[in-house]
Structures are given as structure tokens and as C-alpha cells.
Amino acid sequence: MENKVLYKVEGLSKSYQMGDVEVKALQEVSFEIGEGEFVVILGPSGSGKSTLLNIMGGMDKPSAGKVFFKEQEVTRYDDRKLTQFRRRDVGFIFQFYNLIGNLTARENVELAVEICDEPLDVEEMLEAVGLEERSDHFPAQMSGGEQQRVAIARAAAKNPEILLCDEPTGALDFETGISILQVLKMVNERYGRTVVVITHNAPIAQMADRVLKMRSGKVMEDYRNSQPLDPKEIVW
Ligand SMILES: Nc1ncnc2c1ncn2[C@@H]1O[C@H](COP(=O)(O)OP(=O)(O)OP(=O)(O)O)[C@@H](O)[C@H]1O
Q1: What is the reported pLDDT for 153?
Q2: Mind listing the domains of the chain with CATH numbers?
Q3: N or C, which end of the chain has less CB nearby within 10 Å?
Q4: 3-class DSSP state for residue 160?
Q5: Ligand 1 neighbour 200 (Cβ under 6 A)
Q6: How far is residue 220's CA from residue 236's CA, in Å, rounded to a whole number?
Q7: Atom from ligand 1 closest to the CA of residue 167
């Protein structure tokens, strides 16, 4: 089975100048991601995962190299096209949820879909992530796992091609983390969305179709799991 290529990353490098020192966050990273894949980008702290995800999501620009999304070169987009790309094509999920505190779960999701073209049904998404009973609660009235479910509903309801998730289980205990991985897998399977999860937590790689292992700003391994595990079989 060969999926259509969704992302093509070519020779991507990113350096930061810190006084006299040049920090090489990414060094000539190249790979492709197929439509519908569940990808885990695994690497220790400082290996360049967030830098890579931010460039893939149009939030940051590389020092060199190219990113293509559906054969369009994102790295050549002007600000207007980048805004459109972030709104329409990409859903973001962060470690600390980033919900708006004075809006309920439902209102957080509704606000996000207001700025995109073909959103999914808000109630359906809240139900899909298991929050139908809690949709009128404010973030402060919800557990970390519930808040992360709202964040997933918010990102997925935009109906983006891809969900980019930066350590989505990083702030959660083991069992809640597993339940969040199950929700991400559900969005991948039921809605056919491509999902990229970055993590330093090696066991999570067992649920991926594809694994990219990073170290010191480079992709050291790029492999496919022949039998990805169901999240509930993962232990850490
Ligand atoms: N804005 C910045 N200015 C200077 N250096 C930066 C900046 N952002 C990242 N770096 C450096 O780039 C390298 C890669 O950082 P990055 O956050 O991408 O790694 P990471 O794998 O996501 O790490 P973590 O899991 O700890 O978030 C690190 O050495 C980091 O200190």
C-alpha cells in the first residue's frame, strides 16, 4: 500500500545564533509523510523535534531547505498564505492544552471552527472525544486529560489534513496519556486524518505506522512498524 505523499521535507536546517555560538537545531533533515499515516517523531530533549514541528506547521521558518505540503512549497508562502495554511490545513495540539479559560469546552471548539472553511460538526467532535457530558464546563473544572480531549476536538473539528501534536501526553499520568493516544488514533482511523506526534517517550513509537528517530537535529532512523500496537497495549 503506497499512500499519496502529504509532506515532503528536503534538506531542512535551522540554526540559532546565541551570541558567538551557533546552535544547529536541525541539520539537513529529509523525509516524506504519506496521507493517513500515524507518525511518531521520537527523540531526546533538544534533538530538534519542536523546531521541526513548528516549521512543518508554518509557525517558523527554516535557515535552509524546503517543505512541500501536497506538492505546494510551504517554505515559499508569504504571510497571507501561511495564515491560510495554519487555519485550514493544520491542527495543533500542545502539551499544555492552551484552552481559553473563560470559554466552555464547546465554546473553545466553536471559536476555532469559526475561522475555517469546512469544519466538522462541533457536537459530533465533542462526543467523539468522549466529552458530551462535560461540554458546558470551563477548563478549570476539567482534569488535564479532559482538557486535552477538548484540545483534540478543537484541532480535529477544523477538519485539517493533518494534526501536529507536540508531546500531547507530556503533562498527563500514564493511564490518561494512553486514553489521549486512543483518541488520537480514533481521529486518524475514523476521520482519515494524518497524525504526527512528537515525543521523548520511546514506548509511544510502538503505536505508530511510521517512526522517525531524531538525535542532535538529525533523523537517525526512519522505519515502518509492521504491526503497530493498540495504545492500550503500550506500557511506560
Ligand atoms: N528560539 C530559540 N533560540 C535559540 N535556541 C533554540 C530556540 N529554539 C530551540 N533552540 C535550540 O534548538 C535545539 C532544539 O530544540 P527543540 O525545542 O526543537 O528540541 P526538542 O527535541 O523539541 O526538545 P524538547 O523535547 O526539550 O522540547 C535545542 O538545543 C534548543 O536549545
Answers
A1: 94
A2: 5-233 (3.40.50.300)
A3: N
A4: coil
A5: yes
A6: 23
A7: 25
